[in-house]
Amino acid sequence: MKPLLLLDVDGVLNPMGPAAAGYRRYRCTIGAEVYTVHLNPAHGRRLLELALNTGSELVWATTWEHHANEWIAPRIGLPTLPMIPMSPDAPSEHGEMFKTPHVAAYVGRRPFVWFDDQVWAEDEEYLRVHQGLENFLLVHVDPAEGLTSRHLGMAEKWLTLSGFSQGPERI
Fold first, then answer.
1. How far is the C-alpha of 40 from the C-alpha of 164, rounded, in Å?
2. Strands, E, within the chain: which ranges?
3. Least confident piece of the model among 62-76, 88-102, 118-132
4. How far is CA 118 from the centre of its chain?
C-alpha cells in the first residue's frame, strides 16, 4: 500500500500573501470565473522528488478538483494526478473541515500526509476517532507563506520514521 501525499492548492501551492521570490503570477479562467494564482515552478520537482524518495503517490485534495490538473499541474511541472472529489456543501458533524470526510473516504486505510492550510485538531480528531484512522500526518501550511522546505521535510521524516516510506521506486 503506497502512502499518499495529499495536496491542496489555495493557501498551499497558491499562497494568499504577497508572492515571494520564485513565484509566478498566472490568470486562470474556469467557466466565467477568472482567478489569479501565484505558483512556484520548483514545487512540482520537489513534490515529485518527495514522492519518489518515499514511494508515495501524489493526489489532489482541493476544491479545484480536476481543474488542478488543467491549470496547476502543468505550471509547476506535475503530471496529471488522481483527484479526491469534493463537495463544499457537506455539513460538518464534529467541527471538521468539509474536505475531511471526503479525504477519509478516499484514503481508506492507506497512510497519508495531507498538506492543507485548513487542517486543525478537529480534523485530526475526526479522522482518528470517527473514522478510526491512525497512520496519517496533517501538515498545516500557513496560507500567507505557502508550502516550504520545512513542510516537505516534515512529511519525508514522518514517512521514513513511521516505516511507511517504501524508498525510491525502481523502474
1. 28
2. 4-7, 24-30, 33-39, 57-60, 112-116, 136-140
3. 88-102
4. 11
Cell numbers representing residue 57 in the block: 503517490
Q: What are phi and psi of 53, to 5 degrees?
A: -65, -25
Residue with cell 478537529: 122
Pairing verdict, β 24-30 and 33-39: antiparallel
Contact 81, 58 (CB under 8 A): yes
Is the pLDDT confidence value at 93 over 90? Answer: no
Amino acid at 32: A
Q: DSSP 3-state assignment of 93? A: coil
User: How many angstroms separate the CA atoms of 45 and 54, rounded?
Assistant: 14
Helix (H, G, I), strand (E, B) or coil at 38: strand
Backbone angles phi, psi at 131, to 5 degrees: -110, -10
Q: Which of 2, 77, 93 minimizes the C-alpha distance to 41?
A: 77
Q: Looking at residues 46-67, what average pLDDT do you find?
A: 96
**Edge-to-edge strand ranges of the sheet holding 112-116:** 57-60, 4-7, 112-116, 136-140
Confidence band of 96 (pLDDT split at 50, 70, 90): confident
Which residues, other chains included, contact 161 with Cβ-Cβ below 8 Å and sequence gap of 6+? Answer: none
pLDDT reported for residue 18: 81
